[in-house]
UniProtKB/TrEMBL annotation:
The chain crosses the membrane at residues 102-123. This is DUF4974 domain-containing protein. It comes from Marinigracilibium pacificum. The keyword Secreted does not apply. Residues 280-348 form the Protein FecR C-terminal domain. Residues 143-235 form the FecR protein domain. It holds the Pfam family FecR.
Length: 354
């Protein structure tokens, strides 16, 4: 079924459940190369109905037909009645002469019909009076500024630690058999509650990271995304093509730079993950890296007009729950600089010889 932009923008739940291309996309694990992926990303007005339809579709799996022509015809009629469409009958003689592929398609539609009819009778109303479609999806958006870190608990039991200068979006609640969708800009550590029926997917940069029950870190910056796995197993896919994906095991990190997938490597836990426990770690860092990260961590700005920023640094250190003054005192002693704290501005200058 070819869909014009106008028609698909007005799709209802019933339209999704009748659309063979949408059903096929869902049953084939929603490849990002399929047009439906872009449609749903570019039109938030139909996401609610699409997720409701996906929940119903995932409750069944298409089987080979095991019933006669008359039962197929009755099921087809019940589909039409449940969505208030004009009744139409199937010519059983034509049906019996169709190929196996057509017969298989009818069996899929019949299974979905059972779900629609079950919903029709269990809810305090039916599809036509709008009670089902009145269920809205509430999206929650959280962000942090420099110097801020945030811990979030999702309704499925998952825990997210959001780093400074980051933004995350997630559904306020997750329905049964519904994919758990997350959008991330910046950095976050995820501890995902195990649920085999509801995949947990994080969209960050040009990647999709999918997990069932695991813990991992994602850092998504301009043109660069890094995924580091701590426990469990995740699959990382490319937003542009479903043919490119990697499976990570604990201790592995995948780095994607400007859509170029680098090789998987092991990572240092302290460097990648310690931030979530309020631990600030530097390893062989130059002055630019140190001041940049301190600015983000504490929410301050550094004035280096009196300091020669070309001085070679190779600083290594670890700080847990320490104040800015304490951190600067320690680094300054090692790297020979003095500082003055003026509210949110930190003035750095060379240490005077005494």
């Amino acid at each position: 079924m070819k869909i014009s932009k106008h028609k698909y923008s007005n799709y209802t739940l019933a339209d999704f459940l009748q659309d063979e291309s949408f059903i096929d996309w869902v049953l084939n694990d929603k490849p990002v190369s399929n047009p439906w992926f872009d449609r749903l990303n570019n039109d938030e007005s139909i996401v609610r109905h699409a997720l409701q339809a996906e929940t119903l579709i995932r409750k069944i799996k298409p089987l080979k037909p095991v019933f006669d022509d008359s039962r197929v015809e009755r099921l087809k009629l019940r589909i039409d009645e449940s969505i208030d469409k004009k009744e139409s009958s199937l010519d059983s003689r034509q049906l019996s002469s169709k190929s196996y592929n057509y017969y298989y398609g009818v069996s899929v539609a019949a299974c979905i019909a059972f779900i629609i009819i079950l919903t029709f009778f269990l809810l305090p109303g039916n599809l036509s009076n709008g009670n089902f479609e009145s269920q809205t999806i509430t999206w929650v958006k959280k962000s942090t500024k420099d110097g801020q870190r945030l811990t979030l608990f999702l309704t499925d039991g998952s825990k997210i630690k959001l780093n400074s200068r980051s933004e995350i979006q997630y559904q306020q609640s997750f329905n049964e058999n519904e994919v758990r969708l997350i959008k991330l800009k910046g950095e976050a550590f995820f501890e995902v509650a195990e649920d085999s029926t509801r995949p947990f997917r994080v969209y960050a940069g040009s990647t999709i990271t999918e997990a069932l029950g695991t813990s991992f870190n994602i850092k998504s910056e301009v043109n660069q995304t890094g995924i580091s796995l701590v426990t469990g197993k995740v699959k990382v896919s490319d937003l542009q093509t479903s043919k490119r994906n990697e499976i990570l095991i604990p201790g592995n990190k995948l780095l994607v730079i400007s859509d170029s997938w680098k090789s998987i490597s092991e990572f240092d836990f302290d460097e990648e993950i310690a931030w979530k426990d309020e631990v600030l770690v530097f390893k062989n860092a130059d002055s630019q890296e140190v001041f940049s990260r301190l600015s983000k961590w504490f929410g301050v700005k550094f004035n280096l007009s009196e300091y020669d920023n070309q001085i070679t640094w190779n600083y290594t250190g670890k700080f847990k729950n320490q104040t800015l003054k304490s951190v600067l005192t320690s680094i300054g002693y090692s790297e020979k600089f003095e500082f003055k704290i003026d509210d949110k501005e930190i003035i750095i200058k060379p240490m005077e010889n005494k």
